[in-house]
Amino acid sequence: MIGWTKRGLARRLRVGQGAVKHMANGRHEIRDDFGAWLEGLAAAHAPLSPELRDFADKMGCDRGEWVRYPRGIRPLSDDEAAALRRVAEAHAAAPWPPEWVPKGEEADEAG
């Protein structure tokens, strides 16, 4: 539903591709809260057409950013804009799985 590849998920979570492959292949247990995080994002993405999923990715909705009229792309209808806004809000509200500390940000959490 979200349209992320294993490589894309690994990049977003700042982990190696092997970690994501182990989860996908069942070699590493997926915590309930991590699964719920993914399901929540998938629910926000579900109403989007493939075209709007591509817009969401290019517009940075997965980083909580929002742009109403991206340069070089047709203006969005109010319904499309509302759907993308919901995706952006879902990602902004839960940018990481619960208790997830991205690599390189451990010092920020402690500090």
UniProtKB/TrEMBL annotation:
<protein>
    <recommendedName>
        <fullName>XRE family transcriptional regulator</fullName>
    </recommendedName>
</protein>
<feature type="region of interest" description="Disordered">
    <location>
        <begin position="91"/>
        <end position="111"/>
    </location>
</feature>
